Prior knowledge:
The chain contains seven helices and five strands. It is of the alpha+beta class and 172 residues long. A hairpin with a 3-residue loop joins β1 (60-64) and β2 (68-75).
Amino acid sequence: xxxxxxxxxxxxxxxxxxxxxxxxxxxxxxxxxxxxxxxxxxxxxxxxxxxxxxxxxxxxxxxxxxxxxxxxxxxxxxxxxxxxxxxxxxxxxxxxxxxxxxxxxxxxxxxxxxxxxxxxxxxxxxxxxxxxxxxxxxxxxxxxxxxxxxxxxxxxxxxxxxxxxxxxxxxx
Length: 172
């Protein structure tokens, strides 16, 4: 678990936690201001699904401290994160854990998170356990290390590369 002082030092954008799990090169490029997501058809599909999923839920996309954007608040104490696919569930899990920890540090108490994959009709509850908090601390420290690199990490080919918005920057 992070101390309050370390958390303050490591505070970051929630998507960076996600990108740290997915690809350090993608994280570095994003951290340096390169935004390829607006050019991606897959990102556009995800945004469309996000906008149309759960139309009866009134509280959507809440931006806090210009760092974290919570997809939905379904009820008191429940934070939802909507994703296109479960294939990057670990990245989504840590991103949601970061939101839960961030809100706790702001004084919201112990909240429950839920990952939702509407296309697949899947749900996964996320709670801040000591193990998950340890992985989150590792991720936050890792994000800071990647951001401090003077050059991007080398590209590593994975199955996600073929649908990645940053593909052209790695593989031309």
